[in-house]
UniProtKB/TrEMBL annotation:
Signal peptide, first to last residue: none
Species of origin: Kribbella orskensis
Entry protein name: ATP synthase F subunit
Keyword flag Transport: yes
Family: Belongs to the V-ATPase F subunit family.
Keyword Ion transport: yes
Entries under Gene3D superfamilies matching the protein: ATPase, V1 complex, subunit F
Length: 73
């Protein structure tokens, strides 16, 4: 089964745990990049905070490996 992860500021993403998403907390650009590089193999959908999406750039949003969705501001 493909999992869903949420990457970004822990304050903005914590509620997604209630829906069963895996939380990938990141408060700095370095943490965002590390979490992205170390995505678990079973994750197929990644919800990104706008700040995380900005750090990763358009290449991440066009990933062929996982489906990415940027959360509203």
């Amino acid at each position: 089964m493909t999992g869903v992860a949420v990457l970004g500021d822990p304050v903005r993403t914590s509620g997604y745990r209630l829906a069963g998403a895996r939380l990938l907390p990141a408060t700095t650009a370095a943490e965002v990049r590390r979490q992205w590089r170390e995505l678990p193999a079973d994750v197929g959908v990644v919800l990104l905070t706008p700040a995380a999406a900005e750090v990763l750039g358009p290449q991440a949003l066009e990933s062929a490996v996982v489906l990415t969705v940027v959360l509203p501001p």
